């Protein structure tokens, strides 16, 4: 029982929305707080950087904070990464770096310097223990005004309440891929052991991390993100809903389409357009020219919807 939500602004003029992307998503998650009061998180996407990457690390939130940051800086410098911007905030250290070497090797080294929670030219993940409002204040989320974002509010069930077990999770090794999830992966340990035998690493016992590691595993072997998510519907068992940028998974209850601003909220197995935003064009369930059903599997109630040029929506539900 968690809450997941997101916002995708296709039109840079931001029609019909008078708040920042961060403000909108914070308010959406506050409305879902009854589904998960333990922790929260945001995957925030901005215009891609040119020739640079964004990284965010979890660090100690006490006396060891400074030494954690020094260790990360040393690791970055040791691999030839130039820090062009940095910030220590809350229990995290954020760095924007220029790097031209092997990304896989670089990220492996960074993961062993400290816990990397996001990497990409566009993506920045913020997650921590507390309510959405707590995190918004602590990490200045209302100041974010990017193109799109997904968020999560968590009720801990399979693992403890810690920053590292909060959502979103990043698909380690692949830029700009983030996952939030509601539900349970019932074959978690079977799939985890299978992936570990293939050399994949896990840092928590949160079943949502399995989705992120699974996607990274499939993409490392040549699958596209969409192909990886298609196979996840067959290989990851359980009733669940999950969202990833480029591909968004929710239930088969239906999807409304808004031409310029998408607001989606998952609550009680429904994916709904939020009424917080008044779009320039009316919401329509009949926008068949813009939303096409790409797959329908009646036996497992899975649904795939494609919105050209923006996202793919998928689902598995009861």
UniProtKB/TrEMBL annotation:
Residues 278-318 are annotated as: Disordered. The keyword Transferase applies. It catalyses: D-fructose 6-phosphate + L-glutamine = D-glucosamine 6-phosphate + L-glutamate. InterPro entries: GATase_2_dom, Ntn_hydrolases_N. Keywords: Aminotransferase, Glutamine amidotransferase, Transferase. The keyword Transferase applies. GO terms for molecular function: glutamine-fructose-6-phosphate transaminase (isomerizing) activity. Residues 2-318 form the Glutamine amidotransferase type-2 domain. The lineage of its organism: unclassified sequences, metagenomes, ecological metagenomes. This is glutamine--fructose-6-phosphate transaminase (isomerizing). Gene3D superfamilies: Glutamine Phosphoribosylpyrophosphate, subunit 1, domain 1 (3.60.20.10). One of its GO terms (biological process) is UDP-N-acetylglucosamine metabolic process. Pfam families: GATase_6. Its EC number is 2.6.1.16. SUPFAM superfamilies: N-terminal nucleophile aminohydrolases (Ntn hydrolases) (SSF56235).
